[in-house]
Amino acid sequence: MSTTTIITNRHEQCHMKEQCLRYEKCPMVLVQELLAGKWKILILWYLSYNTLRFSDIKKLLPQVTQKMLTQQLRGLEEDKLIYRKVYPVVPPKVEYGLTEVGKGILPILELMHGFGSSYLNAGLDK
Length: 126
Fold this sequence. Notes:
Number of helices: 8
Helix content: 40-55%
């Protein structure tokens, strides 16, 4: 049995176990799986205010390789958090944006931004 399986099946360890017992997988584990990946949170953040082309996202994240960005975008698309729209033009034009499901994570991202601001204001960063 993998560690993830153990974690997802151990709802009695969750402080919200009464709600978790309704599900086969702990909701926190699900969110962790959806957002796992070094760049996914930032991709979602940048898409929160605009649809972007691949090249635009790449410019916003210059440290990420093209292969890694492609993998992260595909994962977010498979999880229905973003959509990919291909325009029938030459050269190909592809845009990415948040789905309605993906927009549901915006309040969480805004809270994360607020926490980051507070952390920086308190001088707790390295």
